[in-house]
Structure formats: C-alpha cells, structure tokens
Design a protein that fits this description.
The complex is a heterodimer of chains A (245) and B (150). Chain A has 245 residues and is α+β, with helices and mostly antiparallel strands. Helices cover 17% and strands 42% of the residues of chain A. The chains are: A alpha+beta (245), B mainly alpha (150).
C-alpha cells in the first residue's frame, strides 16, 4: 500500500512537470502598461506574475520587460504594442509562443544546450522561430512583419510556408498583401547601391527637370534639349569594396 | 472653529492622497482603452491623429502651446484622416528631408513622399487615401523608429 502511494505521487509529479506552465514574471515597467484581466485592462506592475495566455498592451513612450521562464528568456514589449503570451516549460524543454497583434518586441533567447527550446513569434502574416539569439520583430497592419536579427540566427516563415534563415544584417520583411517575403538583403542593398542620374544629379532633381522642362539647369536661352540628351549618357562612378564586412 | 477648519483641510488632503493612485490608474487605463478602440476603427479621424501624435511625441505638445503649428489646426477633429494629413504633421515635426519637392513646397503630396523615403509609410497608395486606426498606429510606430534612427 505504501509503495502504491509513492508510485501515484511520483507519476502525478511527472504528469504535472510534463505540462507545467512557465512562470511569466514582469521584470520592468516604464510608463503606461496594462494586461487584460477578464474583460478589463489592469495596470501592469513589476514582479507581477502573469497567467498563461495573458494579453499585454503598452502605451506611447512606455515599455515592459517580461521574463518568460526559468532559463531567462525575456521579451521587451516596446511602445504601442499588443501581445499575447503562451509559455510552458519542463526540465528538458521550453515552449514559448508570442502572438504579436501590433507594434514591436525584442526577444532575447539565450542558448542552453541541455534544454530543447521552441520560441515562436507569430503575426497575422508570418512566424519567426528563434534558436539562441536576440531578435527585434515589428508588425503593423500596413507595413507587415519585419524581423531583424540582433544576435544569432532565426527562421522566418510566411503563411504559405515559404521560409528564410536570417542572420547578420539580413532582414525578413513580409508585407500583408504579398505572397512572398521581401529580399532579405534589402536593407543592406539600400545603403550600398546608389542610383546615378548623371552630372551628380539625384533622382528627384532629374524627375523635377523632366516635369518642369529643365529651367533650373540655368540655360540662358531656355534651351532644354541638351539637358535631356545628357540624362541618358554614361556616368563615371567610383566604387570602393571593403570585404569582409 | 479654527481647529475644525484645520481638521477639514487635513481630511481633504488625506482623501486626495488616497484617491491619487486611483486617478493615475484610471488615466493609464484610459490610454490603453483608447488605443484598443483606435485599433478597431475602420477610418481614423484627424483628432485621433493629433492625439496619437502628441502621445508619441510629447515634447511637441509643449512646443505647440507656445507656437501653434498650422498643420495641426488645418482640419476639424472629426474630419476623416488621410495619409497626406498625418504625413504633413510628421514630416514637418521630424524635419524630414527625404523629398526635395517637400522641402520646396511643403505640400501634403510630397510630405507623403518624405515619409515613404524614411520608411514611415508604404508607397502603395496616395495622399488622399483615408487611413484606418491600425494603419495610424503602424505609421506612428514607424515614425518613432525613424526619429530614433535620425
């Protein structure tokens, strides 16, 4: 009989451990931050323990840092953001899902070799999976989802299952109205590739001259023909390539 | 009688101290409730745009008390908010230089171009398009990020 109770106790403990909710604790609050408590919003305070599936919303110029489990996975909820948190943990596994409705979060997921880590951030357009890293995720109704990797690597997958492995200065951008995600090097490309319009003009000046007839080129007799001819000519460009970056 | 008056003042002060956290608490929650309502609005109003702008950039609120900004008094608060209206406010206050024509004219059309150049807005619609509450929130988050970058 004594052994029977020991077995019941041990199996009960194991069952509880395998499905236990992680402790979601608020570590820092700045400004106006609230959590959804039933049908109403209540202010969020430091050291507060939050239930599974809690919704957190931040006001303007406010943020909160929330610890998601015992191995110090944290999320910083930036201003004007709304998220929902699901976090479970056992001794050998952590399973965290964050639903990002709007705004921006910074997730910090330190690697622990002994613990299998599942850390996903979902938006209506895509999901990012983190493995030992730090990432910043932004989602907006119009701008879509952007994932920037601050440290380590992540995998981002859109609704159609098309995924990208992102690291370094690559950026995952998934627009709300597009089937494919953007070029992962778009942010790097925008600062390395420069459009050249000839005679040192920027693209807007070229567009203006085409619109207004080139008067601003200062031609004394109002002749605009030479200017338009020159737009299409070749330009000399100096390129410096530094490698590795 | 003098003691009675003194006691009365003391009671009022104690009540004020007791109610202070409740007042602050309700103000905080009001902001979150308002953001939540804005998030479900199909078309935001000019008043919403102004309110969110001042919430996000409180430093301009003080500045505008001294010298009111034209763009913020151009329309009534109930007017449906367009991309051009909010772009004009953001481009002016954040001193965006992304559009040469905006610097020349200050028009809403080119204010949108300046916001697109900074990544605050997308280039897939015009300055006359009305914007929804979630879009307004999105634009303001991007504007805050752009200000941080500059």
């Amino acid at each position: 009989m004594k052994h029977f109770f020991v077995v019941i106790f041990l199996s009960g403990s194991l069952l509880c451990a395998s499905n236990s909710f992680a402790e979601i604790v608020v570590t820092k609050v700045e400004g106006t931050v609230a959590y959804r408590d039933g049908n109403k919003w209540s202010p969020l305070k430091e050291k507060m323990k939050l239930p599974e599936g809690v919704k957190v919303s931040t006001g303007a110029n406010s943020y909160a840092v929330i610890s998601l489990n015992s191995i110090n996975h944290t999320v910083k909820v930036e201003p004007l953001t709304m998220i929902q948190i699901f976090s479970k943990e056992t001794k050998s596994e952590t399973d965290t899902h964050i639903g990002l409705k709007r705004g921006q979060i910074t997730a910090n997921v330190p690697r622990d070799e002994k613990v299998k880590t599942i850390f996903k951030v979902s938006t209506p357009v895509a999901t990012s999976s983190v493995r030992g890293t730090e990432e910043r995720i932004t989602y907006g109704n119009r701008s879509g989802m952007t994932v920037e990797v601050l440290r380590g690597s992540i995998e981002a997958t859109n609704r159609l299952g098309r995924g990208n492995l992102i690291s370094g200065r690559q950026k995952f951008v998934q627009m709300s109205n597009s089937a494919n995600s953007g070029n992962i090097l778009s942010s790097v490309r925008s600062i390395t590739i420069v459009s050249v319009n000839g005679y040192g003009l920027i693209s807007e000046e070229t567009a203006t001259s085409q619109y207004s007839g080139g008067d601003q080129t200062g031609s004394p007799d109002g002749d605009t023909g030479a200017f338009f001819n020159n737009i299409q000519r070749n330009s000399t460009v100096s390129v410096n390539i530094v490698w590795p970056w | 009688m003098v003691n009675g008056g003194y006691m009365f003042k003391k009671i009022i002060f104690a009540m004020f101290l007791l109610l202070m956290p409740a007042i602050l608490f309700s103000q905080e929650i009001n902001q979150i409730e308002w953001l939540s309502q804005l998030d479900s609005k199909a078309i935001a109003t000019f008043g919403d745009g102004k309110k969110l702008f001042y919430m996000t950039f409180p430093e301009f609120s003080e500045k505008h008390k001294a010298s009111p900004m034209d763009e913020l008094n151009k329309y009534s608060d109930n007017s449906p908010l367009t991309r051009g209206m909010i772009a004009a406010i953001i481009a002016r206050e954040l001193n965006l230089k992304g559009s040469f024509l905006y610097i020349l004219t200050g028009w809403e059309r080119y204010a949108c171009r300046a916001c697109i150049a900074e990544g605050i807005m997308n280039s897939d619609s015009s300055e006359n398009d009305p914007i929804s509450g979630p879009e307004l929130l999105d634009i303001m988050i991007q504007a805050k990020n752009a200000k941080g970058r500059n």
